[in-house]
Each structure stands twice: as structure tokens, then as C-alpha cells.
Amino acid sequence: xxxxxxxxxxxxxxxxxxxxxxxxxxxxxxxxxxxxxxxxxxxxxxxxxxxxxxxxxxxxxxxxxxxxxxxxxxxxxxxxxxxxxxxxxxxxxxxxxxxxxxxxxxxxxxxxxxxxxxxxxxxxxxxxxxxxxxxxxxxxxxxxxxxxxxxxxxxxxxxxxxxxxxxxxxxxxxxxxxxxxxxxxxxxxxxxxxxxxxxxxxxxxxxxxxxxxxxxxxxxxxxxxxxxxxxxxxxxxxxxxxxxxxxxxxxxxxxxxxxxxxxxxxxxxxxxxxxxxxxxxxxxxxxxxxxxxxxx
Length: 296
Hints:
It contains twelve helices and eleven strands. It folds into two domains: about 35-120, no CATH class; about 125-295. The protein has a five-stranded mixed β-sheet. Strands 1-2 form a two-stranded antiparallel sheet. A two-stranded parallel sheet has the order 3-4. It is about 40% helix and about 15% strand. The chain is α/β, with parallel strands linked by helices. Residues about 1-15 and about 25 have low confidence and may be disordered. The chain is globular. A hairpin with a 4-residue loop joins strand 1 (about 1-10) and strand 2.
């Protein structure tokens, strides 16, 4: 608001009448025409919506468009990975492309998941076994994207972050208990097999494992430390929680800390993430990353 002062004489005293006029809104920053012309040539990328709606030309939106443009330049040489994995790579949020905001963003650009070399995978309970091999080592993944990528590697006969599991199962977060029931129904002796668990490096992932470990002390259940080591070494940054998370119960945290202490860097990372209220999702280890690790 802009004050306009007008001096007025009154019979008893001198007063100032103040009038307030609405100040014109400051013009939001607009994307440069040169920058837009540079990215328009990318396959499938259409900026018509943003040309017609300049109010939507925000700094964050342009940052995402730049990332998509850089990806499209080499897209034909990239592997197809899950929607969640590509979402983390391009938008720093593994669920962005599954939510309405991300879907709307792609639609406005005339883009789709196929152009981003990403696919949607079902989240039903799944398991994969290596044929003609006794089940001595079982890798449990909290995350479905990691499960799909690890399965592709196992089908090719390659290692999963240095591990060679005989069986891979998708734990589906808190549904891991039903996954264990499934294994028992398949006649697998859970007390004889080694169970290795991997999840996100965040409060929920640690709570799921801590709860499972303390609830089933008779199982030979441990954290898949080689996978966590790979997760840490390939994470270029930590990530904010999209939604506020409750604190992980102390007994569960202590269980994870005890096992992470075998690799000091993991323990340090865990404590730093807790202090800064950050996380590292499993999608950091997408198929491209793990395939490269398997090749050495």
C-alpha cells in the first residue's frame, strides 16, 4: 500500500488526512525467451502452456524443466527404470510423479513416463527365486523399486550390491510380517536361512526393521550392510521428508545403530540424518546404478 498525504486545515487544529492506494504488484520473474528456445527442441518437450500462463513461470518449475531437458538429450542411451526411481533422480522426491502435482506437470509439458524411460510397477506381494539352488540367503526389500531392480540383476545372474541372494522378496513396508508368513507357507525354514533386510535410510525404514528384529529374535535377521554401504556411497545428497514423520522408538534405533556400527560411515550418516531430520531413499540405488556396480 502507498500512503498519500494531504494537508487539510480544520477550524480547531491542523490535521493530515492520509489516503492509502494499493501499490501495483511487483512483476514475477519471467523465463528468458532465449532459455525457452534452447529447450524447446528436446523431443516431446512443449512449453506452450507456460507461454500462455506466464504466472506459472516459477524458478522451481524451470529447474525441473532444465533437468528434464538434460535427461532427454541422452534418453535413448538410458535404461528404463521405475517411476519412483526416475522421480527421485529428476525431482528429488520419489513419489512426485505418482502424485497429482507431478502428473499435471508432465501433462503441461506434453510429456509422459515413456519419454522419461520410466514405468509403473505393481505393488502386490512378490518373490523371486534363483532356480535349482537351496534357499540359504533371502534378501528382503522394503521398497518395490529396489525389488524390481534387484530382480533384473538376479535374472541376469549378477550380484546385488555385492550380495548373491538365493531368494528376493518384496516386504512392502509394514506388511513384512505377512511376507514372513508367506515364506513359512512355502516350506522355507526361516530359522535356518539368513534373512537380510534393506529399506530407506529414514525413520520409517529403521522402525520397520527394529520392530521386526525385536519381534522375531529367533530369526537370523540382519541388515543388508553391503547394500546400505552402496546406498551411502552413491547418495550425492540427503532429502527432506515430504510429510512430517514421528520419531522412531529408541529401542528400534538402538538395534539399527548396533548393526551400523560395523561400518562407521553408516553410523555417522544415520546420526547426521536424525540430527538434520533428513533421509536417503532406496531409489538412489536404481537399476542403472546397481548394474554399473555389478560390472565393477
